[in-house]
From TrEMBL, chains A, B:
Family: Belongs to the DegT/DnrJ/EryC1 family.
GO molecular function: dTDP-4-amino-4,6-dideoxygalactose transaminase activity; pyridoxal phosphate binding
Alphabetic keyword roster: Aminotransferase, Pyridoxal phosphate, Transferase
Catalytic center residues: 187
Residues with PTM N6-(pyridoxal phosphate)lysine: 187
Top-rank taxon: Bacteria
UniProt-listed Enzyme Commission number(s): 2.6.1.59
Gene: rffA
Organism expressing this protein natively: Empedobacter tilapiae
Protein name: dTDP-4-amino-4,6-dideoxygalactose transaminase
Amino acid sequence: MTIPFNKPFIIGDELKYIEEAVKSGKISGDGLFTKKCQNFFEEKYSFPKVLLTTSCTDALEMAAILCDIKEGDEVIVPSYTFVSSANAFALRGAKIVFVDSYSDNPNIDPREIEKHITPKTKVIVPVHYAGVACDMEAIMNLAKQHDIFVVEDAAQAIDSYYTFADGTKKALGSIGHFAAFSFHETKNIIAGEGGMLVVNDEKYFERAEIIREKGTNRSAFFRGEVNKYGWVDLGSSFLPSEIISAFLYAQLENLDKIQSKRIDIWNRYMNGLNDLMEKGDIKLPIIPNYSTNNAHMFYMVCRSYEERTALIKYLKEKDILSVFHYLSLNKSDFFLKNNLEIDIPNSDNFTDSLLRLPFYYELTEKEQNLIIEEIKVFFDA
Amino acid sequence: MTIPFNKPFIIGDELKYIEEAVKSGKISGDGLFTKKCQNFFEEKYSFPKVLLTTSCTDALEMAAILCDIKEGDEVIVPSYTFVSSANAFALRGAKIVFVDSYSDNPNIDPREIEKHITPKTKVIVPVHYAGVACDMEAIMNLAKQHDIFVVEDAAQAIDSYYTFADGTKKALGSIGHFAAFSFHETKNIIAGEGGMLVVNDEKYFERAEIIREKGTNRSAFFRGEVNKYGWVDLGSSFLPSEIISAFLYAQLENLDKIQSKRIDIWNRYMNGLNDLMEKGDIKLPIIPNYSTNNAHMFYMVCRSYEERTALIKYLKEKDILSVFHYLSLNKSDFFLKNNLEIDIPNSDNFTDSLLRLPFYYELTEKEQNLIIEEIKVFFDA
């Protein structure tokens, strides 16, 4: 029996709610279950406004339109991230400025951000890697000082928090101007593909709704605020089907159960692999004091590309599927078409050496023990 | 009991297939059911390449990227259409050139297209209104003559065909360079929200896949054609969740059953309202000889805005929900921000006078007879 890297799951009333949605007479976007999901997030995490989208990518694209990105604007993005963090802004004509991570944490380093701010910088995109918070206080201070938007790429960061120096604790996604979350099948809470935009500044609420509704003021029309609705702005169809929202809502009803299980899984990896870390064979995740741990992912960092490749191969022979993650975007073909090659060493190190272990709701203790055991066997050899 | 304008439905194994998708271990995009749907369409309609998307809007946006729309390019679109037909190109910086419909058919009039072609025209977007074919032979001839792309907005046009002068019959969506279809809950085949792009020219297959996969060559990687995948182009996340594709596939298995029922509904309206047409009270749809009828919608055209408003009100009092459709896009706030007001009379007439009657799979003969009866009572009064 292979232990996959990821495994989607049904945990509650997913199918029942889909049937209910159909029977309610509306399965296009913004029906009952979309509203239930949005309300859930707004209440639980004090997000001022939540709009479900078809993907985290789409939520980032909405943010890019809301930031009014124009040809030549600069957007600061970590090099170690998923393509969408950059693509969403590149699509609007932005010049992407890639910066480095910390050496011991894949998150973007605010000191590196500061070095790359110019008068053209319009947005900073902190990506909360593995659900671990970026240093949002430092980033927000930079943004304020230079009058720059902050779009949190919170794809992996559901149910995680940042604590400010004064002790204030805020949910990731509620700190920047906008934030984008994912419900892709690999995330803690899933809908196969899916996402949401969080809008933290009230002055963008109305335009966010319009952009999401194909550039029309349809939402205001249904609330009776305007007499007819029409084309008033750029926009796209960012609304998920109610089939997606119904599935998602059943997952949300079980959020605490899912999170508690995932934290157990995470801790079991951490404890199980601690010896190897102490021996210096591997590095394990660091959770800074200002961040909580949402147990989105468990990764380890090998000493080299070759070692990681050998470990992946070894585990695969044992029917355990472990996977590497991002490739430094500054070395991508698309970036190098228009830019010179630059050196972003920490990102390159994570590109070469970071390994993600199987992690999903139904992963059993027995399977996990086997994975830990095999990793130890590999390093003992 | 109210007769709604539309009503989504479960017809077969929708829920079973969703459960199967989850159990298969993959519900993110491009899983088993997405492939089944794509194969179904490619085989049934001889579409060279089909890519499911999260909406018809998204498929149009993919087409706009594939056409390499740049700031200032002109795109010819009927004024009587959904905002997405224009928005998808406006998002890429195009200047939208709105043209008129025929006087007796909401489809774009090729003579009007010809008048508006300039050296900057890059794309023509024929919208097959109500699933009735635009005059594709005339449009393709114009496009060829001027080296212009044709993107069929086939949102409503599933299972409909065009016959060329030489007798060749081709499915709508297979004639232009690209075509976009919708599976929105109001369409013949539904997934709540959903769509697909058809790519008819082989030379765009690879780039279409890349754009759909966030600008990465991931599809080629999974086919073993490249060693690793990375960021190679602009792109977005256009893939639907397998939850959507599983739902859709169950509908596709019942396509013939759905179509046969819809054609009965359509004919019943046509026959039932024929008297009123002959008396000159209303106009009814015209299906040109070159087009089939896919029974997507039943509309009638009143003599005035006032008469239509009164009829909607009358039917609503009888618990029958009928609805008007598009508002001429050349009169939208967004267009008028950057353009002078122009006169597009036939589009304005359909804006004011076209009325859509309740039309869905589960509409009963009894309900339909009631609707027809009440319309007659209204006009007799």
